[in-house]
Amino acid sequence: MKNKVQLKKDFDTKGYDIGASFIKQLLWYFTSVLFFRSGIIPVSSILVFMLKCFGARIGKDVRVKPYIHIKYPWKLELGDHSWLAECYIENLETVRIACNCCISQGAMLLTGNHNYKSAEFDLVAEPIILEEGVWIGAKAIVCPGVTCYSHSVLSVGSIATKNLDPYNIYQGNPAIKVRERVISTF
C-alpha cells in the first residue's frame, strides 16, 4: 500500500528567498495588476521603465507588450532588442533572456514546481536561461532549469522539459528536435 500525501496549508519552501521586502512585493503586485496585466498602458517604453524601477535588468530597444504577467521583476534579465508579448513569466528564480529573443503570445516561462515525490510537496525552483536569438512560440512552455541555447526555437504549443540545442527547432510534448534552424541572409 502506498503512503498517502497530506497537502499542507503552508508548503515547505526550504528557505526560498523571494528577493524583495514585503513592501516591494506589495507595490509590485498592485503595479502589475493596474498597469501590466490590465493593458491600460500600451506603451512599451513606459512598461520597461516601470520594470527597471522594480529591479529588472533590461537592455536597449526592448519591447514589452501589455497584458504580460511577470511574477518578480527583480529576478528578470532582458538583453538588447528582445520582445515579450502577452506572456506569463513565473520567475521564482532568475529568468535570463539574452539579446534578440522573442517570447510569443501565451508562452510561459515556469521556474518553479513542487516535488511530487515528497510527502511535504516542497517547492523546487530552478532558473531558466534563453541564449541569443531564441524564439519561444505562442502557448509554448519552458520548464524549470531549462536552457534554450543560441537561436533555438520552441514551436507553438510545445513544452521544453530539457535543454534545447543551438540552431534547432523543437516541437511537441515533451518537445523533440524536428529540424535544424537555418537562418538565411538575403
Description:
The chain is α/β, with parallel strands linked by helices and 186 residues long. The protein has one domain: Hexapeptide repeat proteins (UDP N-Acetylglucosamine Acyltransferase, domain 1, 3 Solenoid). Helix content is 13%, strand content 27%. The chain contains two helices and 19 strands. It has helices at 22-36, 44-53, and strands at residues 57-58, 63-64, 69-70, 76-78, 83-84, 88-90, 95-97, 102-103, 108-110, 112-114, 123-125, 128-130, 135-136, 141-142, 147-148, 153-154, 159-160, 168-171, 176-180. A hairpin with a 4-residue loop joins strand 18 (168-171) and strand 19 (176-180). The longest helix is centred in the first third of the chain and has 15 residues, at 22-36. It starts with 21 loop residues before the first helix and ends in a 6-residue tail after the last strand. The relative contact order is 0.11. The mean pLDDT is 93. Belongs to the transferase hexapeptide repeat family.
